[in-house]
Amino acid sequence: MATTAAQHPLYQAAPGWLKAVADALAKAGIQVIAPVQKEEGIVDLAPVASLEAAILGNGKTLVPLKQLFFPETEVLLDYAKRDDGDVALEPEPLPAVETVVFGPRPCDAAALDVLDQVFEWDYDDVRYRARRAHTTVVAFACSEAEPECFCTSVGGNPHSERGSDILVFAAENGGALLRVVTEKGQKLIERLGSIVQPAPEGARPPAPADLAPRFDPDRVKTWLDANFEGPFWTEATLRCLGCGACSYLCPTCHCFDIVDEATWNGGKRRRNWDCCSFALFTLHASGHNPRATQAARYRQRVMHKFKYFPERFGRLACVGCGRCVRTCGVGQSLVSVLTQIEAKQGTGD
Amino acid sequence: MATETATLTASPTLIPMNYVPMKMRIVAITPETSDVKTFRLHFCDEAEGERFTFRAGQFGLYSVFGAGEATFCIASAPTRKGYIECSVKRAGKVTADLHESNEGDIIGFRGPYGNWFPIDAMRGKNLLFIGGGIGLAPLRSLIWNCLDLRDQFANITILYGARSVGDLVYKNELREWRERPDVQTVYTVDPGGEAPGWDGKVGFVPTVLSEMKPAAEGTMVITCGPPIMIKFVLASLTQLGFPMDSVITTLENRMKCGIGKCGRCNVGSKYVCKDGPVFRCSELSQLPQEF
What we know:
A: 8-stranded mixed beta sheet; 4-stranded antiparallel beta sheet; 22% strand; B: 6-stranded antiparallel beta sheet; globular
């Protein structure tokens, strides 16, 4: 069981601390990643030389934090066919860049706890693990929620420490309180030396963003337990185009494909994000498709997040970031589907 | 639970995985039908080959470099050491490239993955194998496994059918099994699939099964074939009084990782690659019918 928030040491930093932090980390050869304006309307994570241009206020990056640990595409190995008929296999070196990421929201950090369950059970996904081991997550608490946010409906909150190594409460004057959650976070604090000091007795983080829950996941699951079949799935999901945007931008979605990218007599084997909304996802070579309709595929997405994953790994596969709601091109809102489900629960419908 | 199929859980320690396959050399290619070939594979690294063990029912990911990976069961028996075999129907990109491969070519293999047939629970029982088409491949691994340990089992019966005589796989082995005094065999082809000289039955597998009237008492059934065959085989078995926990099958959902990560083979809260591919039919009836 994790220690409670009250037990985690609190530090404070004076205005201007982020500049000093970036300098200190650069000096130590540590890569700094933070949300930056990539193009108009698009804020995303990128390596930065300084944290001055970083966008650390409220709001989420376009692509969630998972991209640092489980990238959209990555090379697993190189293969080369030799003249003597042999094949040379070269595993891609493990990622080993010491990194500190500033600015993910608590929901994105919490999603790492979900991904950890998948990538580190039975078989240890060494590429994911290496990135986790080399990356310190400094999440920033939310003082304001965005319209699509629903973390408080799925067990999170705007001040959640889950998945963070350090949780930062930014102050209006440019200073901050830092709650150190893990040993990795403590090491970073030590590295920062005089930039941060233990917070004085009685120092308190500001109030979290106010966000009323929209649905109860336990009631949703109770309905899901009894309603795999039924017209609801078709009726509620008719708009879904199966484009996969919701999965690609979901901080907990982790399905992937493994493909070869061939050149003349060699090539690379890659791992790419995949999505259960795609018709080809489950298509057998025989032509049989266990999930033949878009409704069945949407149902799988909801069931996996709110029923199957909790049954398997003891937690929801949703952190309430709302990117799927924000991104969906046809307004197929997951929150709306879930509130409809909750409304049905207990009505016999 | 007392069954092996149900008790397979995560390894006590994490197994590191970087998705890099072992290299295997194709040492023999046997054409089985117009679109099925069996490949015999040797490990390029002998030490790797000596360390390698598996149990009947497990599968692997076979790769043709440049085409990608595909999932097939290991069709040879664990009691036959030094090689593995897979039988592959030409269907997609990887299988087409495999069919174009020659003896001596190098392919990749990751595995063995998944659970296995509960052979310990089968000891002392009558075994009834029911296969259809290429679905005989995983059964073949177990059949030879059991025949190599013949005295540990009571009656062994093999019911096998295909669309046509030309679609029967492992023809030499079908003959060998038929000639053994310690195995009962019933071979059948779908109506219209017979050929001159065919001395087996003509009829769909489930129909032939109903005519055979096997006794449910003391018998375990192991079946694999096309979904439509399985559906009607299960109906026949139910009519014959077989409880579904004595009927075992193996699923082949599409997979990419083979180790419970990529999400592709999810059926309910199960991963076919980890909790299967071998399931008791009583377990399958508890799952969403997405296989």
